[in-house]
Recover the amino acids of this structure.
């Protein structure tokens, strides 16, 4: 029953000075909104960053730093010595060595410098590439002069007026190649070889025959399900230690990278959350300020209530409820504003918008806490006023 | 009913101790209607605040209905103010955001009574002071005399042992002041309500059967009117 009384008195008091109430609400709702928007954006950015890797699959791995591009002959691994790797490493499900070289690519009298990838038949599948037009290279293309072009070459061909690229001829290493497919732009910042988007893919054996170069630049692969990633990495490392003595290849796995990414992004979310919390504390101080002014203005009222028999805790209760209500409504508008803000920013940045319950629960919890915390001191001060001094105030 | 012995009150102003009450002995009995008069600054209000448990004396003994009330804790003092004492102030001191009935019900609500019950009681007492038709008005919509009637209803609603009125007619013109005084006299005569009233108005004081004159912190003369 008393609680009802506190709520009634608090509501009346808030409604009686709308300007003051509005200012306090503004402060607290901006604070809550910033917490929610910041934390949501942190989560959205994290999802956005992880999406590119997750699309690639967590079982993806890439082995690089195998070939020494400056010296030929020393420490190189010919294709045939990689053949033993899948057998020696049972954790590997798929395995696609590739070689990267550079060549001039000529088409209809125009020439461009371009990366040329020698790829195996399963390269397309292991990298989860998407074909835009035509078909990917497969096992039957080996030793044939067929090629698949990436987005950059496709764009350059479009610029010289070739829109139907399938069947067109390209001159690579002074040999005539037929374009059998165009791959869609693969997302960047992923572990896939960068040259997929930039260059031309030709069958590995064709590359070997034309250039005489049999040096594996890198290997992409996929792990079996439910195998320990770190154990597999160690195993592969062990195999390479036997094949190449001079250098240690880098082995990067998608799951490890996603882990690192997660850590970084959580840090970002934490940082944004802290920034939001600072705004919230400022809002809370605003509530405290408004409440202190409210207590000072209503000293006489407090005195009257004390004379009528209100105990200290009655006065305290009324003011805490007042601060609590301020923060509750501030919190509600703040949550709406925060979600709106996060939506607006992700719309602008073309991120996939979503809202998790964490920032909303956080917003509610924090606003209630702020209300009680910053409401407590003014309420305590009000309750400590001596009745006689309060009554004498004007 | 109220027994004050050697009440002293000293205020500290800067480095000076300013004695306001220098040893007041005073008894008020059930059914009394007492006026406390005196020059302004003479300590009338201070004495009233001490009687009303709003302020504590520096020295002396105070017994309220046989109970020593010096050194009681704040909750107990609040409870006595709530149940045993009704205040009427010069400036009426109604709560501005509440209606007349809500103002009158306030002491009952602080006592823990239900909204419905206290509202009914409030309306009965507003009726009693002639304000039954103004129960739902805001204090701002009422004249000074009407506000003071509401304040008296509020003081009465808690069924207190004593009503303490600090210059209840001080902010009203003579005619309205006399109406308020008539109301007090009627409540005292008909319902036997104990009233202590501070006034500087000799015409008001003259109507009270018992009078104390405070001068320079001491009771100068005590007079019992023959009624």
């Amino acid at each position: 029953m008393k609680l009802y009384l506190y709520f009634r008195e608090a509501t009346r008091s808030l409604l009686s000075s709308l300007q003051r109430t509005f200012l306090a609400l503004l402060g607290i709702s901006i604070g809550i909104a910033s917490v929610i928007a910041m934390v949501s954006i942190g989560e959205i950015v994290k999802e956005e960053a992880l999406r590119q890797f997750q699309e690639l699959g967590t079982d993806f791995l890439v082995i690089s730093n195998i070939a020494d591009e400056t010296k030929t002959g020393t420490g190189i691994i010919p294709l045939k010595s990689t053949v033993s790797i899948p057998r020696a490493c049972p954790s590997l499900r798929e395995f696609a060595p590739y070689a990267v070289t550079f060549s001039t690519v000529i088409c209809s009298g125009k020439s461009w410098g371009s990366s040329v990838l020698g790829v195996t038949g399963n390269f397309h599948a292991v990298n989860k590439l998407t074909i835009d037009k035509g078909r990917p290279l497969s096992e039957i293309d080996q030793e044939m002069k067929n090629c698949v072009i990436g987005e950059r070459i496709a764009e350059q061909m479009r610029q010289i007026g070739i829109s139907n690229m399938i069947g067109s001829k390209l001159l690579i290493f002074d040999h005539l190649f037929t374009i059998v497919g165009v791959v869609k732009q693969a997302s960047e910042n992923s572990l896939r070889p960068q040259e997929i988007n930039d260059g031309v893919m030709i069958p590995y054996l064709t590359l070997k025959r034309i250039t005489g170069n049999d040096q594996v630049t890198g290997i992409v692969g996929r792990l079996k399900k439910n195998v320990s990633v770190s154990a597999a990495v160690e195993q592969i490392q062990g195999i390479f230690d036997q094949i190449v003595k001079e250098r240690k290849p880098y082995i990067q796995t998608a799951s490890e990278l996603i882990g690192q990414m997660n850590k970084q992004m959580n840090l970002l979310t934490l940082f944004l959350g802290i920034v939001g919390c600072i705004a919230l504390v400022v809002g809370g101080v605003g509530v405290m300020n408004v409440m202190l002014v409210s207590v000072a203005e209503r000293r006489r009222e407090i005195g009257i209530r004390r004379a009528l028999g209100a105990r200290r805790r009655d006065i305290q209760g009324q003011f805490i409820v007042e601060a609590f209500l301020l923060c509750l409504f501030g919190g509600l508008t703040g949550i709406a504003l925060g979600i709106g803000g996060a939506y607006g920013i992700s719309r602008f940045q073309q991120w996939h918008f979503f809202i998790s319950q964490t920032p909303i629960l956080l917003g509610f919890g924090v606003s209630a806490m702020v209300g009680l915390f910053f409401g407590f001191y003014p309420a305590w001060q009000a309750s400590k006023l001596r009745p006689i001094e309060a009554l004498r105030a004007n | 009913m109220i027994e004050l012995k050697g009440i002293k009150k000293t205020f500290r102003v800067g480095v000076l101790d300013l004695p306001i009450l220098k040893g007041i002995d005073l008894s008020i009995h059930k059914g009394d209607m007492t006026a406390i008069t005196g020059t302004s600054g003479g300590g009338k209000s201070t004495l009233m605040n001490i009687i009303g448990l709003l302020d504590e004396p520096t020295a002396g003994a105070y017994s309220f209905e046989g109970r020593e009330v010096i050194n009681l804790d704040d909750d107990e003092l609040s409870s006595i103010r709530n149940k045993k004492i009704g205040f009427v102030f010069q400036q009426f001191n109604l709560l501005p955001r509440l209606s007349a009935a809500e103002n009158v019900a306030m002491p009952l609500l602080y006592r823990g009574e239900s909204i419905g019950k206290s509202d009914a009681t409030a309306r009965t007492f507003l009726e009693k002071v002639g304000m039954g038709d103004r129960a739902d008005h805001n204090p701002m919509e009422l004249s000074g005399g009407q506000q003071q009637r509401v304040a008296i209803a509020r003081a009465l609603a808690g069924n207190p042992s004593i009503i303490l009125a600090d210059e209840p007619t001080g902010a009203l013109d003579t005619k309205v002041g006399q109406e308020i005084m008539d109301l007090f006299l009627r409540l005292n005569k008909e319902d036997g309500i104990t009233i202590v009233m501070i006034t500087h108005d000799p015409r008001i004081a003259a109507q009270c059967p018992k009078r104390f004159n405070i001068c320079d912190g001491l009771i100068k003369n005590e007079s019992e009117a023959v009624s």
